[in-house]
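A.,

Following up on our hallway conversation. Structure tokens first:
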């Protein structure tokens, strides 16, 4: 827009400039000079001047045009607020609706059920946009997760662990294991519209696994291994973790069966002075900060060309983990995600 475009001005500012323009014209100033002085176009100055000549000072005022906010909408203000609350606090299946996620059709049916108002799909989209709702990839939460156990962990169990660690000079490590495959390629690729990009992968796929821990001090310990995690591998990692620490280790893990195996329990009892293990609530991986590191690992490794040579995947994995380990600030930043900020 032009520098002297009146559409940029608020109504009070525009009316004040129109009044100034008329005063300038009454003093005998020309259209061009008045427009430059008042920061308006000559057309706007002339229009205000003609109105003044026809009806006096009252005639030069202008008002915002258009329909008042809320007028003509199908839903009342109260109905809009209630619908927003339901979308924000509930999932469709909790309201006995045949949808897993909130899409426009689900919102449309919700409105029809509760208020007997049938909206067009496009109108539902406009309402959602006006309310500030956007389509987003949802976080996954296990159906079996117990909310009361999560609340207890956040408000009782973890604060007690943190207090003990502080009193005993222990360091809290958050641990987990993850797996990677050579044919796992993520992300998006530019391609001509209608031509889906193709990724060439080796069908003789291979994989590797990683067990790692992070602390909110920016420390990281990790180990790459083949196959699934078993008691022997886990004990080997715990032994290295204890050896590498100057303080007692408080290790927080999930409830994988191997974490509760008899050999692991026996080893932990023998090394109680050096390490203790605590367990997150079942089906609650989003509470573990090391899950954020695992997601970053998979995102980084799978952006490489698919590993086709033996050992290539392990090389990419070790390279990323070593790089992350050398940057404590990046590890500390993992704890800033909303679901794990309580552990920062």
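Then the amino acids I'd put at each of the 344 positions:
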């Amino acid at each position: 827009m032009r520098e002297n475009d009146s559409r940029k001005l608020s109504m009070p500012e525009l009316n004040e400039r129109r009044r100034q323009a008329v005063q300038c014209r009454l003093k005998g100033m020309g259209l061009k000079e008045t427009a430059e002085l008042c920061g308006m176009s000559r057309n706007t100055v002339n229009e205000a001047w003609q109105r003044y000549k026809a009806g006096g000072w009252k005639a030069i005022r202008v008002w915002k045009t258009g329909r008042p906010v809320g007028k003509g909408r199908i839903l009342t203000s109260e109905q809009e607020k209630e619908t927003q609350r339901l979308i924000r606090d509930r999932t469709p299946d909790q309201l006995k609706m045949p949808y897993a996620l909130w899409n426009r059709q689900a919102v449309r049916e919700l409105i029809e059920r509760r208020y007997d108002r049938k909206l067009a799909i496009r109108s539902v989209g406009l309402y959602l946009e006006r309310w500030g709702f956007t389509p987003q990839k949802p976080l996954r939460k296990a159906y079996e997760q117990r909310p009361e156990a999560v609340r207890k962990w956040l408000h009782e169990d973890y604060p007690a662990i943190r207090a003990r660690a502080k009193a005993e000079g222990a360091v809290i490590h958050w641990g987990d294991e993850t797996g990677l495959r050579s044919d796992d390629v993520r992300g998006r690729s530019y391609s001509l519209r209608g031509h889906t990009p193709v990724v060439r992968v080796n069908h003789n796929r291979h994989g590797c696994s990683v067990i790692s821990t992070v602390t909110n001090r920016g420390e990281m310990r990790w180990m790459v291994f083949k196959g699934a995690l078993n008691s022997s591998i886990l004990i080997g990692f715990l032994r290295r973790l204890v050896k590498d620490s100057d303080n007692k280790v408080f290790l927080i893990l999930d409830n994988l069966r191997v974490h509760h195996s008899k050999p692991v329990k026996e080893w932990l009892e023998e090394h109680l002075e050096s390490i203790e293990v605590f367990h997150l609530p079942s089906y609650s991986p989003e509470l573990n900060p090391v899950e954020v590191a695992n997601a970053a690992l998979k995102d980084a490794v799978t952006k490489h060309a698919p590993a086709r040579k033996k050992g290539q995947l392990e090389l990419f994995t070790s390279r990323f983990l070593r790089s992350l380990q050398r940057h404590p600030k990046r590890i500390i930043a993992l704890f800033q995600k909303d679901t794990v900020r309580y552990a920062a």
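The chain has a mean pLDDT of 87. Curious whether your intuition agrees with the design.

B.
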